[in-house]
Amino acid sequence: MPRTAPLHRPRWWTELLLIAVVYAAYSGGRLLARGDVSTAVGHGLAILRAEKALLLNAEHPLNRLFTDVPAIGIPADFVYASLHYLVTPALLVWLFRRRPLRYRAARTWLMVSTLLGLVGFTLMPTCPPRLLDAGHGFVDTMAQYSSYGWWGTDASAPRGLGAMTNQYAAMPSLHVGWALWCGVMLWRHGRTPLLRALAVGYPLLTTIVVMGTANHYFLDAVAGAAVMGVGALLTRPAMRFADLVQKRFGFAATVSRSPVVGGGCETSAGERIPGQRTPSAGADDSTPAAAR
Q1: How far is C-alpha 212 from the chain's CA centre?
Q2: What secondary structure, in 3-state letters, does 85-141 show?
Q3: Is residue 281 predicted with pLDDT exceeding 50?
Q4: Contact, 211 vs 79, CB < 8 A?
Q5: 192-219 per-position pLDDT tens digit
Q6: CA-CA distance, 223 to 116, in Å (whole number)?
């Protein structure tokens, strides 16, 4: 019987379509998840009170530093507004090309966690620190330094597109969640000390930036990490469910090929082509081929 070996690399165009669909659903769902402003403000103040009670209020000193020192605040705004759009897709492409056997699980983990984050936005709309009353001591650094970038006063949204983003989707912080995913991927699959350093540094930098720019509370960052943890636990069940759906509707999950050159046909010693043998010693050349 011929042996087959599965090809685990997915088709690039199906992956691109899948990611586009999930991201569109996430973006659209995030907009639809806008809650009442007073409710969102109440949740934000409750988080701030809880942090003060637990002595976890790191947002204020970081925000003052970013506000008072433009050499720190401006680069931090660029980090907040751009890196999660660049680093996460770049790592997906890198895994697809260099670690195809690990790609599907990594992609599924990211997608499941992102959808869980959407559930969080829906159940708990939260006002970020920058949108609280000025009496609470926060400054919106994105608005303060908006003349240096492409964003306006609506977080990282480009000028004129503020209506396309949900300003009250602070809990959980998927900036931190996605950065943590990137860190795990770099640590797990990176092979150099530099990649290992980036694996640790990138999530830490992102956590500091989201607090210093007053876009998230510390507990938002903790919730973002927790969402990724739950997503990791649900990755294998999600993959099994996807396999069942593929089997049920007749989709091909893998493509098989035979590693044997002859496609499973066995050759004997001295054969150049399966089924075609060289004349044995002493054989009469006039003997018909069928009788040899």
Answers
A1: 23
A2: HHHHHHHHHHHHHHCHHHHHHHHHHHHHHHHHHHHHHHHCCECCHHHCCHHHCCCCH
A3: no
A4: no
A5: 999 999 999 999 999 999 999 999 999 9
A6: 11
Q: Please tell me the distance from the alpha carbon of residue 291 to that of residue 29, in angstroms, as a whole number.
A: 74
- As a whole number of angstroms, the distance between CA 130 and CA 143 comes to 9
User: The whole model's pTM is what?
Assistant: 0.78
Of the candidates 139, 122, 120, 123, the residue with the CA atom closest to the CA atom of residue 131: 139
Residues 6+ apart with CB under 8 A from 90: none
**Is pLDDT at 268 greater than 70 in this prediction?**
no
Q: Are 231 and 113 in contact (CB under 8 A)?
A: yes
- Which of 176, 134, 131, 144 lies closest to 69 in space, CA to CA? 144
Residue bearing tokens 């999600």: 238
DSSP-derived secondary structure for the chain: ----EEE-PPPHHHHHHHHHHHHHHHHHHHHHT---HHHHHHHHHHHHHHHHHTT---HHHHHHHHHH-HHHHHHHHHIIIIIHHHHHHHHHHHHHHH-HHHHHHHHHHHHHHHHHHHHHHHH--B--GGGS-GGG----HHHHTGGGSSB-SSTTSBTT-GGGS-TTB-SS-HHHHHHHHHHHHHHHH--SHHHHHHHHHHHHHHHHHHHHTTS--HHHHHHHHHHHHHHHHHHHHHHHHHHHHHHHTT--S-EEE-SSTTTT----TT-SBTTB-PPPTT--TTS-GGG-
Q: Which amino acid makes up residue 77?
A: D
- The burial of 250, by beta-carbon neighbours within 10 Å (0-12 exposed, 13-18 middle, 19 or more buried), is given as exposed
> What are 217's two structure tokens?
């509370």
Higher model confidence: residue 135 or residue 155?
135
pLDDT tens, position by position, 49-83: 999 999 998 999 999 999 999 999 999 999 999 99
